[in-house]
Write a structure and sequence with these properties.
Distance between the termini: 84 Å
CATH architecture: Roll
Number of strands: 7
Structural class: alpha+beta
Shape: globular
CATH class: Alpha Beta
Oligomer: single chain
Number of domains: 1
Strand content: 15-25%
Helix content: 25-40%
Order of helices and strands: HHEEHHHHHEEEEE
Number of helices: 7
CATH topology: Nuclear Transport Factor 2, Chain: A
Length: about 260
């Protein structure tokens, strides 16, 4: 009887192990890197349709995501966990259905030249969707701000055009050469609006106005604050232009220009 018990538990262990493997899978080394502008998989969208619907009367909240904390160069970026320990990126590109409807309404009210430019880009690249682009741009904004503050030049290479990357890398090298460390918290993005869109010789360009709430502190080698105040939240306006060759197989957009209104 004892031998039969051993055989029975061995069978149970094998069955449970197989089920865990089938659910969790395994890494193959061929996983795709994160593309903030990637369009959602239709299969994923279909699987979400059975989920709970958002409250149509709930207010639109763009900048309420928990703060993303950027540590200094010596540490890896970390983000404040949500209540369940996981960051919430529900919906397409982190957008709730209501927020998406608001973005689509804003696009419909955009000036004629902006809508004409977006239509031209969509004609050259049928996969282009302005609302999805805005969602991706917001994610890219946080990724770039994080990487710059943390001094992660490698992470910036795929997100920035070469000239802009060299400018960012030079600023990071100058800061590191002085022994300074930057700590930045992106509290949220309160506005993300397309203000220009053009298509010229297959090159699509989309310019966005991004208003974010941030705290930023720069410390010297001794840990003394030389710029900024961790207790003060700044509302920062950035004008960022993204570009992509619509004839290229590479679906990724790159940041090609940054400005701030005077």
């Amino acid at each position: 009887m004892q031998h039969l018990d051993i055989v029975f538990f061995a069978i149970v262990a094998v069955v449970l192990g197989w089920k865990l493997y089938s659910v969790l899978g395994r890494r193959t080394g061929n996983e795709r890197r994160v593309d903030p502008f990637a369009r959602p998989d239709p299969k994923d969208l279909a699987s979400r349709r059975g989920g709970p619907r958002d409250d149509a009367d709930a207010p639109v909240q763009i900048g309420t995501r928990r703060p993303t904390i950027v540590r200094p160069e010596s540490d890896a970026p970390a983000e404040a966990p949500a209540a369940n320990g996981q960051r919430d990126y529900s919906g397409r590109n982190g957008m709730s259905p209501r927020e998406r409807r608001q973005i689509e309404a804003d696009i419909a009210r955009a000036p004629d030249d902006v809508r004409d430019g977006l239509a031209a880009i969509a004609k050259a690249d049928p996969s282009f969707n302005p609302a999805d682009f805005i969602g991706g741009a917001k994610i890219a904004f946080e990724m770039i701000v994080q990487a710059f503050a943390a001094g992660e030049t490698k992470a910036l290479q795929s997100l920035l055009a070469r000239d802009l990357y060299e400018s960012f890398a030079a600023a990071i090298a100058d800061r590191q050469g002085k022994g300074w460390k930057q700590k930045t918290v992106v509290i949220g993005i309160t506005q993300a609006q397309i203000i220009a869109a053009t298509l010229s010789n297959k090159e699509a360009r989309v310019t966005m106005k991004l208003v974010s709430e941030q705290t930023s502190v720069t410390e010297d080698a001794g840990g003394n604050v030389i710029e900024g105040d961790a207790a003060h939240v700044d509302s920062i306006i950035d004008i960022w232009t993204f570009a992509r060759d619509t004839s290229s197989r590479d679906p990724n957009w790159q940041l090609v220009q940054t400005d701030q209104p005077s």
